[in-house]
Amino acid sequence: MRIKFIALLCLLFSQLAFSAAKIESWQSPEGSSVFFVETIGLPMVDVRVVFDAGSARDGYQYGISALTSALFDAGAGEWNADEIAQRFESVGARFGAGVSKDMSWVSVRSLTDEKLLNKALKTLSVILSAPSFNEADFQREKNRTLAGLKHREESPAALARIEFFKTLYKDHPYAHPSSGVVETVAGFLVEDLRAFYQQYYVAKNAKVIIVGDIDKKQAEQIAQSLVSGLRAGVKPEILPEVPVPTKGVTKHIKFPSSQTHVLAGLVGMHRKDKDYLSLYVGNHILGGSGLVSQLFAEVREKRGLAYSAYSYFSPLFRKGPFTMGLQTRNDQTKQAVDVMQTTLKNFVNNGPTEAALIAAKKNITGGFAMRFDTNSKLVSYVSMIGFYQLPLDYLDTFQQRVEAVTVASIKDAFSRRVQPKNINTITVGGE
Amino acid sequence: MIFRVILLALVFMPMSAYSSNVKVHERVFSNGLKVLVKEDHRSPVVVSQIWYKVGSSYEPGGITGISHMLEHMMFKGTEKYPAGEFSRIVAENGGNENAFTGRDYTAYFQTMEKSRLEVSFELEADRMRNLKLDAAELKKELEVVTEERRMRTDDKPRSKMQEFFMAMAFSNSPYKNPVIGWPSDIANYQVDDLQAWYQLWYAPNNATLVVVGDVKAEEVFVLAEKYFAGIKMSEIKPIKPQAEIEQKGVRKTTIKLPAKLPYLLMGYKVPVLNSIEDESEAYALEVLAGILDGGSSARLASRLVRGQQLAVSSGAGYSMMSRLPELFMLDATPAEGKTVFDLEYALKQEIYELQRELISEQELQRVKAQVLASAVYERDSNFYQAMQLGMLETVGVGWEKVAEYVEKVNQITAEQVRDVARKYLVEEKLNVAYLDPQPIKQQKHRSKVAGGRHAH
C-alpha cells in the first residue's frame, strides 16, 4: 500500500469523534463504570473490559502488565488453555487481550444468538475472575515473551522507539516498552503476576464497554456478569506528572540496516489538555493528514527522501509524546533530519496559513462520520471516553471545538509546547 | 498487496469468510466497465474502490514492480488536476484515500461521507486515461519506492527471506517475483515504460468499480455513467498463462541474514479456485488451514506452541482466491533450545496425521462456526466487503463466489480434508527455507545536546 503506514498512524492517533452514537453510562453496584452503545443492523456484539493496569503500572517490573495479560487465556477456573480456546472458538467468538501504556483490556466479539453469546461471556467472566496463573503456563508464556523481545532487536524501528521513550520519559512510568525488557522479564515469578492481578484487576478499577445489537437490559446483565466476580478493591494511585520538556538531545544507535530510522519529538500533551484542539488541528496540518501534510510534502513529495513522513500527538492520562518520524537511506539522514526540523521550525514560527487551516477543518469535519462507522471503531472510541473520563457528549461537541481553533491559537500552543530546541532526535541505522 | 509478506496476510486471516447475504447490484457499461454496488445503511459513509486487472504477475522480466511504481505515479497529476490536486480535493472533502498493488491487481480507493461520492468518481475517471507522466516526478518517486523497498523488505530479515523463498519455490510462474520489484528493475524504469504500462492496462474494460455504503444502487449507476461511460474502451490482450511447471522433488534453501531468531517457512504447491477442476478441493484446503491455524484451539497453537512447546509461534495459511496456483504455507519460530529442523519434522508429522486420520467432528464444527461468525463480523466494515468483491472479480473468480463461501465450506467433510492433504501436501511439491541468523553488530553512540549538530 502506498502509505498504509501513515494511514494506520492517522487512524490510531487522530482525534476521535462521533455524534450519531448515543453512549449510555451507569455504575455497577461493585463500582465499575459501564458504557453502552446500541448499534442496530448486525447480529453481533463487542464487549471490552478495561483496567487502569497498563505498563505504566509495571513499577520496576517492566513487562509485568503485558505478561499478566498474556496469561489470561492460558487457564481459568476449571479450564486449561485448550478448553478456553475451544469454548470461544466453537461458538465463533473472538477473544482478545492486550495492554498499552495506560490501559489493559480483555475483549470478546460474539454473535448475539443467546446460546452462543452466553457461552462466550461465561468464559470471559471466569477468565477475569479466576485466572489460574499456573507455573507451567507461566514459564511457557514467559519464554515466548523473551523470544519476542529478542525478535524486537532485529528491528531498527523498534529500537528507535524504545530509545525515544527512554529519552523523553527518563524514570517516569511511561519510559519503558510495554512488553518489557529481557533483564526484567527473565526474573519474573508467577507470584509476581498473581500479585499484579490481585492489585489491579478489581471492580473499582474496571470499565466495561459494550457495543452491539442488544438492548440496555441485556447490556446491564452482561456488565453485571463480568464484574460481579471481581473483588471490589481500590483504584490505583494516580500516575505522577511528567516533567516539562527541557533542551533536547540527539542520540544515534548504530545498526546494520540500509535505512536510518528517525524519531524526533518531545513530551507532548495529555487527554484533557487545555491546548488539545489547537495542537491536534495544528498537527493535522504539520504531519497528521497523510498525503497532504507539510512533512509529507517536504520530505517525500518534494524530495523523495522517505516513504513515510509523519507527526502525531499520542495523548495519554499524563502527557504523551509528540513524535515526528521518517526513515531514509543512511547517507541522506542528515538532509532528511534537516528538512524535518526546518519544516517544524517554520510551522512553529509562522503557524499555518489561513487557507491550510480551513482545508484541515474541512477534512476533519467532512470526514467526521467515518470515525465511528464500524462497531470496531466505536469500541475503541467509547473505551477512550470511558477510560479517560471525558464527557459523554465529548464527541458531539467535537466538530464545534475544531471550528473554534484559529491560526493564532495553533501558533500560540505550538510555540509554548513544541519548541524546536527541545526536540529530541533518535536515529538508528548504518553509516 | 504490496506489503504482502504473503504469509502474514494468510496467517492472520486464514479462514476469512467471503460470505454475506446482502444483495450486490451489478451493471456493465458498454465500454466494458463493471460496476458493483452493495448497499449498507448502517452509517452515512461510502467507500469507492476501482480495481484494475494488472499487478506484478502481469509483468515481464526487466520491469518487475512496474505496476506498483505506476500506482505511485497515479498520484502525480493530470492535465485537469495537476500533481497534488487529487489528494488535496479528496482531503478537503473529508475523504481518506489510498491505493494498493498486489500480484493480480492494482486498486485505488476513497472513503467519504456519502454525499461526496461524486468527487471520487470524477477524479478516478479523469486519471483512468489522462495521467501525465513526467520524468522529473518519476525520478523522485523512484527514490520513494526504493525507500519503501528498504523499509518493507531489505531491512526486515523475514520479509527478505520470504522474497528468496518465493523466488525458489516458483520456477516460471510470475509469482516468483516480489510485488515491489527487484532492485535493479526498480532502478531502471523509464517514463516510456510507465507510459506503455499505463496505456496497456488502464481502461474501463479492464476495471471494476466497487461501491459499498449508504447509497442507492440505481443512483450510483447513474453517477458512474456520468463520469465513466464516456471513456473509450481499449483492446486488452489476454495475458499469457505462464503455467508453473510441475515441481519434481523438495526444494530447500538457507538464508543467512543479520537476525536474532531462526525461522522456518514451508510451502506446498496447491491449486486455487481459478485453476481447479473440482472446486470443493479449494474449500477443503481452506478448512484444512483452519484445522491447523484457525485460532488458539487449532492444532499448531495447541500442540506445537503449548503441548510440545517446540515453537514460540506457528501458523498455516492458504488463499484460494489468487489468479494463479499458490502455496499452502506453514511457518514457525523455534522455542529456545529447539531448531528449525525440529519444527520441520513436527510440522510434517502434523501433515502426515492429516493424511492418515480423519479430523474430529468437533474440529470440523469449530471451523464451520468460525466461518459463519466471520461472515457476520466482516460486514462491520464496508471497506472489507468492497475488498472481497473487488478482489474476487479481479483475479477472475467472479464476485458471485462471495455469497457461496459459507455454504461451500459447510459442505466439506472430514474425508475431503484428508483427501486434499494426501493429494497436495506431498514432499515432491514442498519448498522449505531456513533463516540462519547472523550476528547483528550494534553499538550505541554517545549523546549530545541538540543544536550543535544541525545548522540552519
Q: Could you list the spans of chain A in which at least 5 consecutive residues all have pLDDT below 50?
A: 1-19
Stated plainly, the CATH topology of the largest domain in chain B is called Cytochrome Bc1 Complex, Chain A, domain 1
Order of helices and strands of chain A: HEEEHEEHEEHHHHHEHEEHHEEHHHHHE
Biggest sheet: strand arrangement of chain A: 1-2-8-3-7-6
Instruction: Classify the fold: give the CATH topology of the largest domain in chain A.
Output: Cytochrome Bc1 Complex, Chain A, domain 1
The major β-sheet of chain B equals: 6 strands, mixed
Separation of the first and last Cα atoms of chain A: 28 Å
| Domain unit count of chain A | 2
Number of beta strands of chain A: 13
Beta-strand percentage of chain A? 15-25%
Helix count from the secondary structure assignment of chain B: 16
The tally of helices of chain A reads 16
**Averaging pLDDT over every residue of chain A, what do you get?**
94
Shape call of chain A: globular
**Could you name the CATH homologous superfamily of the largest domain in chain B?**
Metalloenzyme, LuxS/M16 peptidase-like
How many DSSP-defined strands of chain B? 13
| Rg calculated over all Cα atoms of chain A | 22 Å
